[in-house]
Design a protein that fits this description.
It holds the Pfam family Response_reg. By secondary structure, this protein is of the alpha/beta class. The protein is built from eight helices and eleven strands. The chain has helices at 10-22, 33-42, 59-68, 84-93, 105-120, 152-163, 171-178, 189-201, and strands at 2-6, 26-30, 47-51, 75-79, 97-100, 126-129, 132-135, 141-143, 146-148, 210-213, 217-220. Helix 2 (33-42) runs parallel beside helix 3 and helix 6 (152-163) crosses helix 8.
Amino acid sequence: MRILVAEDERDLNRLIAKSLEEAGYSVDRCHDGGEAMDFIRSAEYDAVVLDVMMPVMSGHEVVRQMRAEGIAAPVLFLTALDSVDDRVRGLDLGADDYLIKPFAFPELLARVRAVTRKYAGVKSTVIEIGGLKIDTVSHRVSRDGKELALSAKEFAVLEFLARNSGAVLSRERIENNVWNYDYDGGSNVVDVYISYLRRKIDDGFEKKLIHTVWGAGWTLRETE
């Protein structure tokens, strides 16, 4: 599952992302409301963790704009504003849940699970490509009925490829989205995980799904 974290406190932003990644989520991060809308318009998220008081656009303005544009991804507000009126306003604008700062990370994870379960009820949670089935909620993967055991990071790479099926994804883009740190041009971590996935997804099957586009990156697609 892919989560956007929009929080202007950079240390807290990083800690939230780390907690979510350790729980198996793919995480994108930004630090103001304007950036948040750019991310939300350019990708499909299973949940948005959104600070209320941010530069450029407040969390309230972001969720209002999301709903006006028909973007249904669930929103979990983070805020130090703990009055009943503040909570009611956020929920009335279209947020799905509200978490008061300071908070415990286990509670944050539980609330993310709760809002993503709600969203999963109104959209398909299974991605299917050429006999490959990826359940983005249960993290179960199978090909032609055979269950495949993937690590959390292998699943995150595969899910990112699958959500962008047919598109060529560069090493930089995969690393920035799955590992959530700036690509330095010298790491081969993506190559290693693509190799792991090929062994599990393609070895033993006549049709290959993971394809290298030399000089550009990789794509997950069914061949003719």
